[in-house]
Amino acid sequence: MSPNANRMPLIDALKAVAALLVLMNHFSSYGPLAEAARDYFPGVFNWFFEYGRMAVQVFLVIAGFLAARGLSADGQALGASPLPLLWKRYLRLAVPYLAAIGLAIIAAAIADQWMEDDAIPARATFLQWLAHATLLHGLLGFDALSAGVWYIAIDFQLFALMALLLWSGRIRIVAPALVLAVATASLFWFNRDASWDNWAIYFFGSYGLGAAAWWASGRKQMSAWLGVILTVAIAALVIDFRLRIALALGVALLLGFGRRSGLLAQWPNFRPLAFLGQISYSVFLVHFPILLLANTLYAQTDYDSSLSTLVCLGLSVVASLAAATLFYRWIESPEASRRITATCGWLFANTLAVARKVPLIGTLLPNRT
User: Fold this and answer.
1) Would you state the pLDDT for residue 355?
2) Same domain, 321 and 348
3) Is residue 140 situated within a structural domain?
4) Which of the residue ranges 59-68, 85-94, 215-224 would you say has the lowest mean pLDDT?
5) In which band, very low, low, confident or very high, does the pLDDT at 84 lie, cut at 50, 70 and 90?
6) Could you tell me how many helices (H) and strands (E) the chain has, helices first?
7) What is the pLDDT of residue 104?
8) C-alpha to C-alpha distance for 58 and 249, rounded to whole angstroms
9) I need a labelling partner for 12 at 20 to 30 A (CA). Which of 125, 203, 367, 369 fits?
10) Containing domain of residue 349, as a range?
C-alpha cells in the first residue's frame, strides 16, 4: 500500500497551517529575536503572540476526529482491553518526542554558553527527564525542557481517556454517549477553570467535538446530530464565550461536512500542504531547538534593523522546516520508528541476557517464561 493511501488532504492542510501558526507563536514569544520582531512589526507579530497558540485547538479536534475513526468508527464500544492500544500510542508519540527532547537539551546547553534569556530551559536533571519520558512532567510540576511538550502529554491523556470511556461503555449506544457526556462536562465546567489545564479533562471538550464530527458525518440523520452538537457548544459559549472553543467548533463542523461531502479526501490537492501536514508533528517537535540556536546567533551579531530581523526570522523558519523534514525521515516516519523501536528492544533483551549471567544481579531478575 502506498504510504499516502490513507491520507486526507483537508486534514493535512489544517495540520500544516496549524503547525506554522504554532511555530510563529513560539518565534514571537521567546528570545531577543522575538522581542525585536514585535518591536519592528508589532501588528503581525503581536497577533502571532496573542492568537497563534489557538492553533492547538485544530490539533485537538483533528485528534478526536481520528481517534473516533480508529477506535470506534461506527460508534461501537471497545471489546478488548485498551492497554495494548495505549502502549502503541505511547510509542508512536514517545519515540520522536524523546529524540526531540534530546535535541532541546543540547540546544539549551549551547545557548546557555552564549546568551542569557528566560527562554533557555535550566540544565535537565534525571528526574526531570524521567518525568518527561513518562509524560507526567506537567502533572508533577517539572519545568518543560522544550516549548509545547505539554501538548504531547495531553494528547496521550486524551487518547487514554477516550479509549477507557469506549471500553467502559460495552453497549453500542452507551460508548459514544459516555464520550459526549464527558466532553459536555468539559465544555461547561472543566474548560472554564485553568487549574485543570494539566489534565485531559480540560481539553476534552474540543477533542470530543472532533469525535462527534466523525460519528455525526457517518449517520443518515446527520443534520439532527449536528444540531445537537451545535446546541451544546453554543450553549457553552453563551455561558462563557471562549474563542478557542468557537474555533474548535468551526473546525469540527468543517471536518464533519468535509467527510460527508467527500472534500475530506479530495481537497485541497496541493502537495506542499500535504507534505507539511505529514511532517507537522516533526515541525512541532524540532522547531524549539532551532529557535534557541537562532536566538543565540542573533544575540551575537551586531545587526539591529527591521530587515536583518526579518531575514533572520525567515532563515530560522526555513531551517525549522528543513530540520523537521530530516527528523521525519530518520526518526518519526513509521519505518524509522519501527526500526528504532526494534533496535531498543534488541538492546534491552541483550542487556537483560548479560545481566542474568552476573551472579548477584541475575538472582534479582525475574525468570524467563
Assistant:
1) 62
2) no
3) yes
4) 215-224
5) very high
6) 17, 0
7) 96
8) 10
9) 203
10) 344-369
28: nearest Cα among 55, 48, 43, 10 = 48
Query: How many CB atoms neighbour CB 48 within 10 A?
Result: 23
Residues 197 and 246 in one domain: yes
120: nearest Cα among 96, 102, 144 = 144
| Residue 367 per-residue DSSP state | P
Residue 3 within any structural domain of the chain? no
**DSSP conformation letters of 215-277:** HHHTSTTHHHHHHHHHHHHHHHHHHS--HHHHHHHHHHHHHHHHHHHTGGGTS---HHHHHHH
Q: Is residue 219 part of a domain?
A: yes
pLDDT digits (tens, 9 = 90+) for 131-149: 999 999 999 999 999 998 9
Same domain, 289 and 179: yes
Question: In the numeric block, which cell numbers belong to residue 171?
Answer: 453497549
Spatial distance between the Cα atoms of 271 and 142, rounded to a whole number of angstroms: 40
- 302/359 same-domain check: no
User: pLDDT, tens digit, for every residue of 291-317?
Assistant: 999 999 998 887 778 899 999 999 999
pLDDT tens, residue by residue, 313-344: 999 999 999 999 999 999 999 888 788 877 87
User: How many residues can be counted in the chain?
Assistant: 369
Q: Which residue has the cell 471500553?
A: 167
Q: Let me know if residue 144 belongs to a domain.
A: yes
Residue type at 23 in one-letter notation: L
